[in-house]
Amino acid sequence: MGNYKKVACVHNKVYPNHNQSNDSYQTKSSKLEFQRGNKHITLLNDSKMSEMVYKKHYGTVQNITMSPDNRYLFVEYHEISSTDNSMLGKIAKFDLKTKKLIKESPEMEFGHGQSLSYNRHEKILYLIVLGRNASKHAKIMRINPNNLKKISLTKVKSKSYLISDQLIFDKYNNAYSYTKSSNNINGKNCLRIYKGKVNKKHSKLNLKQVIKHAPGSNNYPANIPQSMAYNQRSGRIYFVANGEIMSVSSHKLGHLKRKDIQDTVFNTNKEFEGLTFDSKGYAYLATRYQIFRSTRPL
What we know:
InterPro entries: Quino_amine_DH_bsu. By secondary structure, the protein is mostly beta strands. It is 3% helix and 42% strand. It has one helix and 24 strands. The two termini are 32 Å apart.
């Protein structure tokens, strides 16, 4: 675990990303357009979904995830961020047919909340409870998607570099996470992808692949890993930074080639918060104040 020298590192092309995440609520956009990269993606503002998600909470969305039947959207909100690394938040459940809030969890300590994900195999929500600089205290929270109550909370024993605010599951119940390096092992700002199993009794993620340049590889301090998503239609894993989305095939992890990496830089200064997909492969991106939907399946 974490032996970087024995894991393949693919050298990908870097596309300049000048996003400074300085958007405000007043500067809404009708769409996010492709600026550079090797994958053309256009995202349009979903006005009804944006109004639904941000009607009560403004600027506190950390991640979104959709149920496999496309019926429900789960949103994690920050409520309080304190100086002792404990972060409180709530999860909201929205009905996408009626565009109404149908359930809200009690306030709990969620950590950053970026890891909210739906496990199709267990049919429950997962969340890594992890505050800033608190890797050794990381816990796995399992949440009932019906009543949004905590099912279990399990401590994770791992070295700090193996714990992050990112977690997804594929349709085979494999778990994935990733980190963006801050040291010079394989180069600063490389992307490290982990794969394994995460459940109530057992949590183990092994380093599977290194990508030389993570999305958001620029000098702006705000450009950190923001989200991670799995597209069940294509089997691709997506990595999100402010203004940029990168993806790879989950089936090729461990032997990726440069041509296997798709990267899109958008012409925007919006802060990207969360990404999820419906069963048809359409992407839904949460920014600080809006939800955008891709114009076509990815």
